[in-house]
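Ticket #4471: structure export looks truncated?
Reporter: QA, pipeline team
Priority: medium

Steps to reproduce: submit the single chain below to the structure queue and open the exported record.
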Amino acid sequence: MIVRNANDSAKRIMDKAHGDVLTVIDEFERTKQEFAKFRSKFRNFMLSQMEMFEALEKDFDKNYNISTVIEENNNNEVLNANLSNKKIKEIEKFDYNTSEFEEIKSFFAAEQN
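Actual output as written to the record:
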């Protein structure tokens, strides 16, 4: 009878220990999954922060670097000059075509009268 009680007691202790082991294993797996989620979120956060800092640095260099601003102004002046010349040529071309249309209109208008 004492041996049977000892065996029952040992079995209960073993079952409880086994249940505790399963609980610890489940918690460990859950913690691993949460850590993996955290690691990926943190990595994405850090990458976005690095991209933002790089963009801010480029903007800072672009806006506050004297040599860059001069180059941009020269480029803008050249572009504006090219656009002005192109607009003048388009206007001259349009005026020439308009005068031809006026001659044609006057010719046909004279025939109808």
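Status: closed, not a bug. The export was complete when the record was re-opened. Leaving a note from the reviewer for reference: Residues 2-64 form the longest helix (63 residues).
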